[in-house]
Amino acid sequence: MHRKARLTVFAAGAVAALGLVTGCSSSDEGATGQNTDACNTFAADHNTFVGLVTAGPGSAANIEKWTADKQAAVDALKSVPGTASGDVASASSTFVEALPADTLELSETDSASGKAFVDNGAAVASACEADGTTITLDELPLTTFTN
């Protein structure tokens, strides 16, 4: 019986040690989450903009409203870097700086600005994740010429 008790204590100790080691290897180590609001705002504004681009104006009668709504979403995106810090601020600044003056350029076939929109958005999402906040960005539909 004494041997069985020692084995039980050893096994319990090993399980506890494994739990400590696993807990210390969390991928969120060093993440602060200080940009949670900025990241969530970026994702919401990004997805609003992508939704508008994807839907289009719907009709000629709606073009002015659609254009104003798109501009409002862009203006909201432009405010995010001022509310962020560190890598999130840097990545969101790069995203905003790469936005074309005419957002219709994002939807042109083989659009360099459309590709930059997607890549820079992914960089913001990555910076947010490293900071402790996971965001999901809707995909901007890009068109390319294919052979």
Protein architecture, described:
The chain is an all-alpha fold and 147 residues long. It has a domain at 36-131. It has 5 helices and no strands. The chain has helices at 2-24, 36-55, 63-79, 86-97, 112-131. Helix 2 runs antiparallel to helix 3, helix 2 (36-55) packs antiparallel against helix 5 and helix 4 packs antiparallel against helix 5. It is globular. The model is unreliable at 1-30 (pLDDT under 50).
Annotation keywords:
63% helix; signal; mainly alpha; Lipoprotein
Number of helices: 5
Shape by Cα distribution: globular
Oligomer: single chain
Number of strands: 0
Would you tell me the structural class of the helices and strands?
A: mainly alpha
Order of helix and strand elements from N to C terminus: HHHHH
Q: Rounded to an integer, what's the Rg over CA atoms?
A: 23 Å
User: Hey, roughly how much beta strand do the residues contain?
Assistant: under 5%
Main sheet properties: none
Kindly state the mean pLDDT as a whole number? Answer: 82
